[in-house]
Amino acid sequence: MTPPDYEYLRKLLKDHSGLDLSADKQYLIESRLLPLSRKCGVSGIGELVQKMKGGSLSIVAQVVEAMTTNETFFFRDKVPFEHFRDTIMPELLKARASRKSIRIWCAAGSTGQEPYSLAMSLKEMGTALAGWRIEIIATDLSQEVLEKSKSGIYSQFEVQRGLPIQLLVKYFKQNGELWQISPELRGMVQHRQLNLLHDFSQLGTFDVIFCRNVLIYFDQDTKINIFGRLARAMEGDGFLVLGAAETVVGLTDVFKPFPDKRGLYRPSGARAASPQGGTLMPKIAAMAGR
């Protein structure tokens, strides 16, 4: 891969996904795009770049998907799910007692382990949620990972990572070497393709937003913009859950840390400025709706 090809890919990825690669990440692009080059029937990354420069929007979309597919596993990092069980849900059950409804958004749902972990956590609450309407929306930039999430089918390796054996037996059915989560759990999660760089106001407002391990790939201005729009998509007493390496501190005052709860934030009441046009980057035809 030549330096000009690398710079072209860096700019393309930042424009279309927010991924902000440093100058020394050539190995990451090569590891993700060389298999895609073979799949597309071209000789290497250079030829892939030439096709994109020639206007191949389908290859642009495939490149973005290949570079933004991130690792995930059930109950990843544990602490956010402890917050969900011990702090978020008890508070919301009191605050929403009159309307008996809660909306949850997994803003980087990937292959489904996070939204299904939340669904299992809710099912484990049993009769405490009788009569409640709980909505889980899982979004992701990649249609490919969303399709896997919808299927709810995972390998033996995937279900062994973070998933307690009692929940595996309770909520999954084995089929050969694969496991599929129950239809009831699959029915609890709605899937939508979405690019966080674009306007997401059409999703409505949420009581809980999980936006973990995605903002670390964005530059500071993009993070600030997204935080502002997340604040406007949240109820005034809602909860924002970030990844262990992410924070609002020093970036924005629209959220404030929840006392003694790492990675948990609440709206501060500060007004977030609306970005012009409600979007950071123009959409392209092949990626509309992301």
Keywords:
2 domains; three-stranded antiparallel β-sheet; Chemotaxis Receptor Methyltransferase Cher, domain 1; alpha/beta; Rossmann fold
Structure description:
- By secondary structure, the protein is α/β, with parallel strands linked by helices.
- It has two domains: 3-68, Orthogonal Bundle (Chemotaxis Receptor Methyltransferase Cher, domain 1), CATH 1.10.155; 79-151 and 183-276, Rossmann fold (3-Layer(aba) Sandwich), CATH 3.40.50.
- It has eleven helices and ten strands.
- It has helices at residues 3-17, 26-39, 45-53, 57-68, 79-95, 113-123, 143-151, 156-159, 165-171, 183-186, 220-232; strands at 101-106, 133-140, 153-155, 172-175, 178-181, 189-193, 206-211, 234-242, 255-257, 264-267.
- A seven-stranded mixed β-sheet has the order 6-2-1-7-8-10-9, sandwiched between helices.
- Helix 1 packs across helix 4.
- The longest helix is centred in the first third of the chain and has 17 residues, at 79-95.
- The radius of gyration is 20 Å and the shape is globular.
- Residues 1-258 form the CheR-type methyltransferase domain.
- This is protein-glutamate O-methyltransferase.
Write the layout of secondary structure elements.
Blueprint: H1 3-17, H2 26-39, H3 45-53, H4 57-68, H5 79-95, E1 101-106, H6 113-123, E2 133-140, H7 143-151, E3 153-155, H8 156-159, H9 165-171, E4 172-175, E5 178-181, H10 183-186, E6 189-193, E7 206-211, H11 220-232, E8 234-242, E9 255-257, E10 264-267
Parallel strand pairs: 1-2, 1-7, 2-6, 7-8
Antiparallel strand pairs: 3-5, 4-5, 8-10, 9-10
Helix pairs in contact: 1-4, 2-4
